[in-house]
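=== Structure Prediction Worksheet ===
Name of assembly: unnamed complex
Input type: mixed (protein and possibly other molecules)
Chain count: two
Listed entries:
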Amino acid sequence: MTSLPRSPRRLRAGVALLATLATGALAGPWFAGSPTAILDPGVAGLLPPGSEKAVVIRRDGTTLAGESLRRSGPDWVITRAGAEVTVPGTDAATAGVRRFWLGTDTVGRDVLARLVSGARVSLGVGALALAVALVLGVGAGLLAGWAGGLVDAFLMRLVDALLAVPMLFLLLFLAALFRPSLAVLVLFLGFSSWMGVARLVRGQVLSLKERDFVLAARALGASPWRIAFRHLLPNALTPLAQDAALRLGDLILVEASLSFLGLGVQPPAASWGTMVAEGQEVLANAWWLTLLPTALVAATVISAALAADGLQELARNET
Amino acid sequence: MLRWSLHRIAAGVALVWLVATFTFLLVSLAPGDFATRLTDPRIPPAARARWRRDFGLDRPLPLRYASWLGAAVTGDLGSSWIYKQKVVAMLASVLPNTLLLTSLGLALELGGGVALAIVQLRKPHGTGDRIITLATLAAYALPAFGVALGLIALLSYRLHLFPPSHMLSLEGEMAHGWPRLVDTARHLVLPVAAIGVTGVGAVARYLRGSLLDERTEQYVLAARARGCSQRQALVRHALPNAVLPLITMMGMSLPFLVSGSLVIEVVFSWPGMGQVMYNAALGRDLPLVLGGTIVATVAVVVGNLLADVAYVVADPRVRV
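=== Predicted Assembly ===
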């Protein structure tokens, strides 16, 4: 453990990309505006990326958008569709020219802001569901591998059975029954994905538990908990991390599919999947509404797959 | 062989029974039954109660389960709440469409994956290999709906090459024989391509990895020494060995194929199982959703059995 081998390039690339996406998602509120603010759809709806519009937000929350803006005394005069509209200075909360780097959607919401808040939902749901799957899978795998016998047989038959269930159908079914909140969605996804982890951990435990260092720990009187968490799991860490990376990608894809179908994340919260569904209606003339969230899902899954590839390489070098 | 088959079939039946029981319990425990769907406020409570009794909804859960299971075993999964038709008949009428779509998609996925991997191994780590590796990684990572919408936007809306949705156009609906077949084929192109693109990445990535390892095995070197070309050694000798785990992998990925085709069917308004299931889920048509989940599970179990049979056929060492 004194010197770690140099991590493979793919691992570093994948982790860096994931970290960038996560940072963007977390730091979103500071650089991107409100994801739900509706900006005068008549003028600011479906703006292509990079457009500029003059925007006045009134104190009552309504907005006006137009081509240009000037001051006249204390008041703001905005040119909206050729006509000049005067907004008294006391009414206006903010006024200025704003650039929509990634355009706006049909009702004039800033796509950049929505992508960033969607990233929080998509990555957050994926990561939490992964955590649920890992806790369940590691627990079941340790139990099956360590206890053996009937417990092992029962748990592994259960795993075999659940792996053969078409999960999207079952999730669709559950979503139809319960209309899930975000927390329930996380639980559903986690419960649908722990089986592979359990199988992996069980295999690792079976091969590790006959080794001398485990025997030594047992001879020293270490408790099963101590053996599990100090001796078995650390040695199974690399394959477990590789599996977790791939699983994160899968979970994000499943969440995106469910939300795309309207049965995952419910409005007004947006995930990348719901954004694509909203953009689907204007697919022919507003490519950015579908392409950008799709690209972000793909980027996340690619970086997870790169990290998994790198971890596999690392595991090969270790042995 | 017989014992093995019986064992596998029994395990499959047990799985279907488990899933059916689990989903039935969920439906029974979920709030609202058929009687609460009669939303007309003029229906007096007494009529609702009588309805419940007529349909046996007031009986205790074990009894309801027993009679439901008894009917299910004889192929009766009840009636759809929305369409007022037999669930089995509805699903049976759309199942062929789904099978057509998924089997063509699977064929494209496998064929494309094998072809790409072989092209990549002509010159491993060369430029072509690198480009295809990147492309297959992207294909693997793209969500199915994204691929589907991209294909529609490009090949249908922009270039007007293929129709964007449904299985038949209006003219095709009227036509018979050859023109009808051509029309269906034109409608098949985009959804099959979408399934193929989403699945080809996993196959190609897997095959490239295992062929790369297989290439330096002694039997491949022996084949080369006997005068096989690099290509022959790869295709005739290494590929059959690399395909074996692929069969297992395809069997295991069947649930994903069934699930993936659901999204594709919804995007392309393809009249299949997935589309029916989706509408049933949106409308909370519980008998239909229940039936669809069971049929999908049966499909996966049968697919897994077929994968096992394919494995036995492909690997002469396996004797069961």
